[in-house]
């Protein structure tokens, strides 16, 4: 993450939200199709999975699908460069699907009338380390916000509409003397 990304992370998280944990192990700066920063996602790993905390500003009010996507590439205007949902186990889409969910399926992001929203969710079956389920595989991973809500069942993407924001997940350098 460049200096601007670190500054945006500090402003968004430090000024607008209370982090649920200590310093994140990974972050994604979320940008809209015009390249404006509209939020940040922070990630922490523990024994149960990876905790995702997203904080957004300037998004249209309502519910929005938000997913981890299989390729860490966010090329506007449609962000199709991020490919489909992160799905290392080849499951069907949807938190309500008996054959699912994809590892990248998250609950909808609720955005208030003032354009702000937060999501705090534990993703099971993924890791910030190496091996199966790694968000840092050869393709890396992105966070994508969609225009509409995810219906939690329609394969492959929950009928959540156009991709309106995207951010590549990046490891946060650990301070000297601290475990990584």
What does this structure look like?
- This protein is mostly beta strands and 180 residues long.
- It has a single domain (3-171), classed as Immunoglobulin-like (Sandwich).
- The chain is built from 1 helix and 10 strands; from the N terminus they run H-E-E-E-E-E-E-E-E-E-E.
- The strands form 2 sheets. Strands 1, 2, 3, 5, 7, 8, 9 and 10 form an 8-stranded antiparallel β-sheet that branches.
- The two termini are 17 Å apart.
- 41% of the residues are buried.
- Low-confidence segments, given as residue ranges, are 1-16, 176-180
The gyration radius over C-alpha positions equals: 15 Å
The total strand number stands at: 10
Main β sheet profile:
8 strands, antiparallel
Give the CATH H-level superfamily. Answer: Superoxide dismutase, copper/zinc binding domain
Question: What's the tally of helices?
Answer: 1
Helix/strand order: HEEEEEEEEEE
Question: What CATH architecture do you see?
Answer: Sandwich
Strand content: 25-35%
* Domain tally: 1
Summarize this entry quickly.
The chain has one helix at residues 3-16; strands spanning 26-32, 37-46, 49-56, 62-64, 66-69, 109-111, 117-123, 142-146, 163-168, 170-171. The chain has 180 residues and is mostly beta strands. Mean pLDDT is 85; it is low at 1-16 and 176-180.
Write the layout of secondary structure elements.
Elements: H1 3-16, E1 26-32, E2 37-46, E3 49-56, E4 62-64, E5 66-69, E6 109-111, E7 117-123, E8 142-146, E9 163-168, E10 170-171
Antiparallel strand pairs: 1-2, 1-9, 1-10, 2-3, 3-7, 4-6, 5-8, 8-9
């Amino acid at each position: 993450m460049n200096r601007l990304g670190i500054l945006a992370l500090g402003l968004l998280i430090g000024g607008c939200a209370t982090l649920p944990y200590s310093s994140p192990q990974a972050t994604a700066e979320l940008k809209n199709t015009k390249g404006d920063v509209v939020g940040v996602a922070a990630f922490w790993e523990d024994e149960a999975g990876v905790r995702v905390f997203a904080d957004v500003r300037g998004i249209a009010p309502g519910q929005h699908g938000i997913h981890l996507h299989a390729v860490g590439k966010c090329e506007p205007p449609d962000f199709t460069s991020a490919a489909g949902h992160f799905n290392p186990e080849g499951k069907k889409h949807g938190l309500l699907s008996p054959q699912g969910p994809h590892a990248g399926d998250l609950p909808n992001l609720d955005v208030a009338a003032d354009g702000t929203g937060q999501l705090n969710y534990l993703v099971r079956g993924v890791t910030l380390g190496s091996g199966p389920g790694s968000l840092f595989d050869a393709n890396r991973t992105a966070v994508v916000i969609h225009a509409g809500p995810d219906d939690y069942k329609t394969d492959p993407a929950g009928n959540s509409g156009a991709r309106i924001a995207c951010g590549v997940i990046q490891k946060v350098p650990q301070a000297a003397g601290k475990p990584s």
